[in-house]
Design brief:
The protein is α+β, with helices and mostly antiparallel strands. It contains six helices and nine strands; from the N terminus they run βαβββαβββααββαα. A hairpin with an 8-residue loop joins strand 3 (34-44) and strand 4 (53-58). 23% of the residues are buried.
């Protein structure tokens, strides 16, 4: 399928929003044995206002990645979905895929066990807070020995990226009428419905229209 040129995003607040809404990321490292990929949840470092993230890997993924010694690529995948040429009307067109993505690269800093515990606690609270009866990491029946064993099986890290590559392809090259049709199709009940992508497109295009002279 053909893809139209992607459009870079440079607004830090927008990129932080993307990370907050899509914390399940892919970690990629180039090692002596070849490429290695893992999948973990990350959070923004709450002591910073940049794109620094914190997270952890389970052992032995830290050794597989050479965590702390090698450059780490973190891939954040935002909303994405199939776009049918039929949504463009009676014009020559082919399928494509709309998406939002972010790549963060740098050599991560390893956390101390105490710092790792704080991050693990934040991760649990972050996701449990949405539940009607959230269960905190230190809440019974968990006890201190159990939590300490959990921490020893993980390695925490902090990554302040030295390279940031952000892209979004949301039908920016289409007319307002076509964009509205695509959003309507994505927000419907068809086989390629994606309400999240529809909302992202609506938000992005509203901002672009507002910015035009």
């Amino acid at each position: 399928m053909r893809q139209n040129p992607s459009f870079a995003m440079t607004d830090v607040a927008e990129l932080r929003r993307l990370i907050e809404r899509h914390p399940w990321v892919t970690l990629v490292s180039a090692t002596d044995a070849g490429l290695v990929a893992s999948h973990y949840a990350v959070l923004l470092d709450d002591s910073r206002d940049d794109l620094t993230i914190v997270g952890h890997v389970g052992k032995p993924d830290d050794q597989l990645h050479g965590l702390g010694d090698r450059e780490l690529l973190v891939v954040v995948q935002g909303p994405h979905g199939y776009i049918s040429p039929g949504w463009y009307g009676d014009v020559a067109s082919v399928p494509t895929w709309n998406f939002v993505s972010l790549h963060l690269s740098g050599v991560p800093e390893l956390l101390t066990p105490e710092e790792n515990l704080v991050v693990l606690d934040r991760l649990v609270d972050h996701f449990e807070s949405r539940l009607p009866q959230p269960r905190a990491m230190w809440e019974r029946p968990n006890d201190a020995p159990f939590i300490e064993r959990l921490e020893r099986g993980t390695v925490g890290f902090r990554l302040t990226p030295t390279t940031v590559v952000a892209k979004r392809k949301l039908s920016q090259n289409k007319s307002a009428e076509v964009v509205d049709t695509v959003i309507s199709e994505l927000d419907g009940d068809g086989p390629y419905a994606s309400p999240e992508l529809a909302a992202e497109m609506a938000r992005a295009h509203a901002a672009m229209r507002a910015a035009r002279p």
